[in-house]
Write a structure and sequence with these properties.
heterodimer; A: mainly alpha; ABC transporter involved in vitamin B12 uptake, BtuC; two-stranded antiparallel ribbon; about 5% strand; globular; B: mainly alpha; 2 domains; 21 helices; 4 strands
Chain lengths: ~325, ~525
């Protein structure tokens, strides 16, 4: 409690020091939070159904960014200053990137996790770390050890500017992609037959199988959805930050996992809430001027939150609601 | 259809059917086909790399020799093989074969102690013959003594991690934090890091008025272990209540936080307090050594200062500082292995294994979960700390860059490859992977690039020279090793029987009643 109070006091002080800076940084945080939300949902979906922390997820997200850059620049010839022609290109790239990452994630499940389903719990977890390292090196092999940059395609003008607080197009596009994807996911999980099967499998695999649900296919489907979300996140990240490197996935994946745990792992709204919170905390920490620890300590702060949450409230902020209850 | 006991067991599966058909062929026919295939492979590889062809032929000959049961024939075959290498001028290989054959002629009941004695003797003598060893195909020359020290340190850490992961079944993804803590503990108390304090106690090779804290590294090694073990207890007490995968994540979190503290610790939040000297690391450290008194009393057998060692020349080999570090590392490793073996079948060790196999049952049998787990954590941390302190004193430096998450996974990979819970397996796995990391990958990469055209002519993004930079892909290679081992031989190369049984039968430690799902509406 004391830590939270101290943090709030620090934020209020910063708000008084520079209000416009504070809101600008907050907007950045919301945007990063959107990207984290997409990744965190992937962790939560997989954890909800298999109780497996899919360490490889962050690296699938990294490959999503790489796919985005390759597809958009090499296939569709995306470059700076195309005006509204970028809209269909971005949509086509989004679909391709989501498909590739979804297939990749389902393949990973088929090769690396399915044979270990009856093994001790730690076995697939260890395998997941191995897969994560392999995928990282796949990125290294095909895209090299340096930053790969995406074209900066969005107009430099602002969407709106309010008392010195600017909101750029690149931030808007992230939100514009994230929200429909989230709504689509919510519809899929709550309204469709496949979503019902997912919820049933998450609750009890054997009972679901007795009820005629093809459990293996449902798990594959879940991994595909999670991968597709990572692909969408990769696209947002590549277009928003404009550089991707092969080793960024793991770190960012861990941050997103923290977000999932913060919100309550296995809980879909919780993942989004946690991700937005983590995004805000990160950008406040890095962007605010008055006595913040700064970007050197971002990881430490995020992981401290992770540890504190796991130790004191392992069910996360949104309590004990499981995906089937949300 | 019911099968009666008299029926031969039904052969199922394509592999077993093929195997049965193969077994049904005449004996000499099978021998001829096998030898033919082996010769073809050897000749084919001969064109890729001459030494590789020889190696395959030798390996095939060894396999066949193992099949020969009768004493005179087998002995004759072995003598022929040894003499071939003697005449070919590869005397070191002939000697190695002779020793291996000799060990296998020892009856099994004596082999259990002959084998370790031979292995230890060979290891101790390694600096004397390292430079004279034959060249291994693909892998190149044998590791030098400095790599040997590196290997021993990592074997020590792997044996320590094996206590946590292999015995107690707690997945620790932040073991590197303990390694770092040991290294920094040694560095703080044997360097110029705190120049405002002046405290000397038994340190060698420095002038008495040198500022900073200087304590003898012989004391710092166990001290680093104790400090790290305490840290392990402090980290463990709140976190060990968590279930397996959550614990893994928390340890991973600590493994990420501690290196960051080391990296940013030169100026804590602008206060100017310099704890770790930041990215520049702490260097130099004092030297290990026994001091002049002990050194003179033993006529120079125990060197007074490791880093300025030695003038002696034994068996035509000029003894160097690295050699002394190597021998000391062997002693430390032997202590570690001894402790680990004694712990394995102690009351505590059996409690660890019980927890690994079934936590609920262990608790029902009266095993105190928290205390037992914390002991596993502290013991593992202790060895990690000692290894870290020793390696820091060997390099005479410690840098935050040495403590990334990769190292944790690297050590975990050693434990998994060798065989969780089996100390001999862990030693073999750790030695091999540490060698790969230090020299092996670079050597293999060189071989691949010069002998396999496809790889040698590759143009990868971001590199100016053609070819594959194999050490760059080290972590992916470890990942692949982890994946392959977990999928095909989850008990490791040299497994312990118990772990193998667990892995194949599939032990579920699911709680009887899943509390998380109890309160949720459906």
């Amino acid at each position: 409690m004391l830590i939270v109070l101290g943090a709030v006091a620090l934020l209020l002080k910063n708000l008084t020091v520079s209000p416009s800076g504070f809101f600008e940084v907050t907007l950045i945080g919301l945007t990063t939070g959107c990207v984290y939300a997409l990744v965190a949902l992937g962790y939560t979906l997989v954890y909800g159904i298999l109780e497996l922390i899919n360490f490889a997820h962050g690296d699938v997200f990294m490959l999503g960014g790489m796919f985005t850059i390759t597809y958009s620049t090499h296939f569709f010839g995306l470059h700076h200053g195309q005006g509204f022609a970028i809209v269909p290109i971005v949509i086509a790239t989004l679909i391709l990137s989501m498909l590739s990452c979804g297939l990749l994630n389902a393949t990973i499940e088929f090769i690396a996790y399915r044979p270990l389903r009856s093994a001790p719990r730690l076995a697939p977890l260890i395998t997941a770390i191995g897969v994560s390292f392999i995928i990282e090196d796949v990125g290294l092999f095909f895209w090299g050890p340096n930053y790969v940059s995406a074209p900066d395609v969005f107009p430099q003008s602002k969407v709106f500017s309010f008392h010195g607080v600017d909101y750029g197009w690149n931030k808007l596009i992230v939100v514009a992609i994230t929200i429909p994807v989230l709504l689509g996911l919510l519809y899929l999980v709550q309204q469709t037959r496949q979503g019902k099967a997912m919820r049933a499998t998450a609750q009890d695999k054997e009972a679901a199988a007795i009820m005629g649900i093809n459990v293996n296919r449902t798990i594959s489907f879940t991994f595909m959805i999670a991968g597709a979300l990572a692909g969408a996140a990769g696209l947002c990240y590549a277009l928003y930050v404009t550089t991707v490197r092969f080793d960024q996935g793991f770190q960012l994946g861990l941050i997103a996992f923290t977000a999932a745990v913060l919100g309550g792992i296995g809980n879909l709204p919780g993942a989004v809430l946690g991700a937005v919170l983590i995004g805000l905390i990160q950008s406040w920490n890095e962007g605010l001027p008055w006595h913040m620890p700064g970007s050197d300590w971002t990881q430490s702060i995020v992981f401290s939150i992770l540890i504190l949450i796991l130790v004191f409230r392992p069910e996360g902020l949104l309590g004990e609601r499981t995906p089937e209850g949300g | 259809m019911t099968a009666s006991l008299a029926d031969p067991p039904e052969v199922v599966g394509i592999r077993n059917v093929l195997r049965a058909r193969w077994k049904a062929l005449p004996f000499w026919y099978r021998v001829a086909v096998t030898v033919g295939i082996e010769l073809l492979v050897a000749i084919g590889l001969f064109f890729v790399d001459r030494s590789l062809g020889y190696a395959v032929a030798t390996a095939a000959a060894l396999m066949w020799l193992r099949r020969v049961p009768r004493l005179p024939w087998r002995l004759a075959g072995e003598l022929v093989l040894i003499s071939i290498f003697l005449f070919a001028g590869v005397r070191s290989l002939a000697a190695a074969l002779a020793i291996a054959f000799a060990v296998f002629w020892v009856p099994p009941r004596y082999r259990t102690w002959v084998l370790p004695v031979v292995a230890i003797t060979l290891a101790v003598l390694y600096p004397f013959y390292a430079a004279k060893m034959f060249v291994i195909p693909v892998f190149g020359v044998w590791p030098d003594v400095a790599t040997g020290v590196y290997m021993l340190v990592f074997i020590m850490m792997a044996v320590g991690l094996n206590i946590v992961v292999g015995y107690a079944g707690l997945l620790d993804l932040g073991y590197v934090a303990f390694y770092a803590m040991g290294a920094y503990t040694a560095a703080w108390f044997s360097s110029l890091q705190f120049p405002t304090h002046l405290f000397h106690f038994g340190a060698v090779g420095i002038t008495p008025d040198l500022p900073g804290i200087h304590i003898s590294l012989w004391l710092l090694l166990p001290l680093a272990g104790v400090v790290t073990a305490l840290a392990g207890i402090i980290i463990g007490l709140p976190t060990l209540r968590l279930r397996g995968d959550y614990l893994a994540i928390v340890t991973l979190g600590f493994g990420e936080i501690l290196p960051q503290i080391a990296r940013n610790g030169d100026n804590f939040f602008g206060t100017g307090f310099n704890l770790t000297n930041g990215p520049n690391g702490i260097t130099p450290l004092d030297s290990l050594g026994f001091g002049h008194g002990i050194s003179n009393a033993t006529h120079g057998f125990l060197p007074s200062n490791y880093l300025q060692c030695c003038n002696a020349s034994v068996l035509g080999h000029q003894i160097q500082s690295t050699d002394v570090f190597f021998w000391t590392a062997i002693v430390l490793l032997l202590i570690t292995v001894f402790c680990s073996l004694r712990l394995q079948y102690s009351r505590l060790g059996r409690a660890w294994i019980a927890i690994r196999e079934d936590e609920t049952a262990a608790a029902a049998m009266g095993v105190p979960l928290m205390r037992t787990k914390t002991w596993a954590y502290a013991t593992g941390a202790f060895f990690g700390g000692v290894a870290g302190a020793y390696y820091a004193s060997f390099k005479s430096a410690t840098f935050p860059g040495d403590f990334y998450f990769n190292i944790s996974v690297f050590i975990l990979c050693m434990v998994i490859l060798g065989g969780m819970g089996n100390i001999w397996g862990v030693i073999v796995g750790a030695a091999f992977l540490a060698y790969l990391n230090q020299e092996g990958l670079a050597n293999t990469g060189q071989w691949l690039n010069s002998n396999i055209k496809v790889i040698g002519n590759m143009h990868l993004p971001g590199s100016d020279t053609p070819g594959l930079d194999v050490p760059l892909f080290a972590s992916g290679i470890y990942g692949a090793i982890i994946l392959v081992v977990m999928l095909f031989r989850p008990e490791g190369l040299i497994p312990s029987k118990r772990v193998a049984a667990e892995m194949h039968e599939g032990v579920h430690d699911d709680p009887l009643y899943d509390a998380q799902h109890a309160g949720s509406e459906t």
